[in-house]
């Protein structure tokens, strides 16, 4: 089943050359897609268009077979498609780790007891079981990266858009992240400069270059 599809998308930031011109993209259930590309190729822009955070000048966005045109369409999509931002500081805004991880499930209407269980289980799975009381602003960059992932996983999405998920992580914590992802039943598209990471975690890898997605040679 196709979860998200971009069809003929063109996009440019004001006063700048086009990022995309007629680009197509899709992510299907069960797929684990890796995306390489140089800085400025539009990898983060691609994910933000998928979620309706940016709007293309041309082209269409489909989710679960339906056309996404209004904010309400994208709100429904964001319940199913979790987005890990490239910069953790864009994702974390509560005082403590537990509050940040609980924020999404609470806003989905889950009860507090269930949310508490989700927070504990998610943090435990990432080796961060004793982090709930920690102040978010005092965390290291790598710790913020894993907590950001926890905020996404706690919402129990169907699929993930992962923007440079290993940035700031040492080899031990990268291995933990990979294990959690590998043992999940989630689909994802993962952007990374680390080809080894993509080879270990993705079924196939493409390159974003010149505004188009291309198979690796």
Any overview of this molecule?
The protein has 217 residues and is an alpha/beta fold. The protein is 35% helix and 26% strand. It has helices at 43-50, 71-80, 97-107, 112-125, 141-153, 171-183, 195-201; strands spanning 2-11, 20-28, 32-36, 58-63, 66-68, 81-84, 159-163, 187-191, 204-209, 212-215. Strands 6-7-8-3-9-10 form a six-stranded mixed beta sheet, sandwiched between helices. Helix 3 (97-107) runs parallel beside helix 5 (141-153). The two termini are 27 Å apart.
The tally of strands reads: 10
Mean pLDDT: 94
Q: Helix tally?
A: 7
Which class of secondary structure composition applies to the elements? Answer: alpha/beta
- Distance N to C terminus: 27 Å
- Could you describe the largest sheet, including whether it forms a barrel? 6 strands, mixed
In the sheet with the most strands, the strands line up as 6-7-8-3-9-10
Topology pattern, helix = H, strand = E: EEEHEEHEHHHEHEHEE
- Percent in helix: 25-40%
Proportion in β-strands: 25-35%
The general outline is: globular
User: Roughly how many Å is the radius of gyration?
Assistant: 17 Å
Which regions are unreliable across 5 or more consecutive residues at pLDDT < 50?
A: none
Features:
35% helix, four-stranded antiparallel beta sheet, six-stranded mixed beta sheet, 217 residues, alpha/beta
Task: Please sum up the structure shown.
It is built from 7 helices and 10 strands. With 217 residues, the protein is of the alpha/beta class.
